[in-house]
Write a structure and sequence with these properties.
It is a single chain. Helix content is 50%, strand content 22%. A 3-stranded antiparallel beta sheet has the order 2-1-3, with no helix packed on it. It has a two-stranded antiparallel sheet with strand order 4-5. By secondary structure, the chain is α+β, with helices and mostly antiparallel strands. The chain has 3 helices and 7 strands. Helix 2 runs antiparallel to helix 3. The radius of gyration is 26 Å and the shape is elongated.
């Protein structure tokens, strides 16, 4: 089936029309499957060699779309920055919980203190995993 498409500068579809469209819109042949998917996902399609290609899913938040390569590209600095923020938050959370544990023990509330100690141990495990990843990236 032929459709007319309007392509943005980054190569992605800005609009499409099965019938009509503007005269300067590019006319291309597409499958019925693409037609069905365009209704919900047209902004995820880009044009390559006069063919509509659906953008793959973003692997994770540390990737950005390179419209010249038509692929997701990993951004090391973004992951490092995110890990720095997460490590700082975990350190603060551990500090606050340890402070609370000390206060609970001084008040004789050992059961509550033990419960918090388990939470701190879990936080420490998460912290160590993130720290290891951070060190791998440095």
């Amino acid at each position: 089936m032929k459709i007319r498409v309007l392509i943005k500068e980054d190569g992605f579809l800005q609009g499409y029309a099965i019938i009509g469209g503007m005269p300067d819109w590019l006319e291309i042949e597409v499958s019925e499957e693409i037609i069905n998917d365009l209704n919900e996902n047209y902004k995820k399609y880009y044009l390559k060699d006069s063919e509509l290609i659906k953008q793959s899913e973003k692997p994770n938040k540390f990737y950005f779309w390179d419209s010249n390569l038509n692929e997701w590209v990993y951004n090391n600095e973004l992951e490092i920055s995110s890990l720095e923020d997460e490590l700082g938050s975990l350190e603060l959370e551990k500090y606050n919980k340890n402070k609370e544990i000390k206060e609970l023990k001084e008040q004789g509330q050992t059961f509550a203190a033990e419960k918090l100690e388990k939470e701190v141990a879990e936080l420490e495990n998460v912290y160590q995993k993130k720290l290891k990843r951070y060190e791998e990236l440095e």
